[in-house]
Amino acid sequence: MRGVKSNGMLLAASDASHENVELLLPPEGSMPGERIWFGSEDEKENQPPPATPSQVQKKKIWESVQPHLKTDASCNAMLGDNFMRTSLGVVVCKSLKNANIS
Q: Which of 19, 28, 60, 82 is spaced 20 to 30 A from 102 at the CA atom?
């Protein structure tokens, strides 16, 4: 937009009809730009290095991951069975349960 390259992304949960949409919320105190990961707190150190922009473009990573992003019955953001986390805890949405994330 406006010729300014962005390296960030907003993620939102939505119901099946896309009438209700809520931004995902990181834990209070999380720092902008902090890398997120999926899994347990212990798995943070075992994450692979971030993909390069070239890898992202060539491998279509977002397209392969996005269908598996959902919220659970407690509004926690999930990739499959793994929680989406920052160093301060789990990413959530306000009220949309079992919703798609995009």
A: 28
CA distances to 50, 59, 72 from 54, in Å: 11, 8, 32
Listed residue (9, 25, 4) closest to 71, CA to CA: 25
Look-up of token digits 């009438």: 19
Class of domain 12-27+35-101: mainly beta
86 Cβ neighbours under 8 A, 6+ residues apart: 26, 27, 30, 34, 36
Tally of CB atoms within 10 A around 96 = 20
Condensed to tens digits (0 to 9), the pLDDT of residues 56-101 reads: 777 788 888 999 999 999 999 999 999 999 999 999 999 999 999 9
pTM equals 0.84
For 63-75, how does the pLDDT look when each residue is reduced to its tens digit (9 = 90+)?
889 999 999 999 9
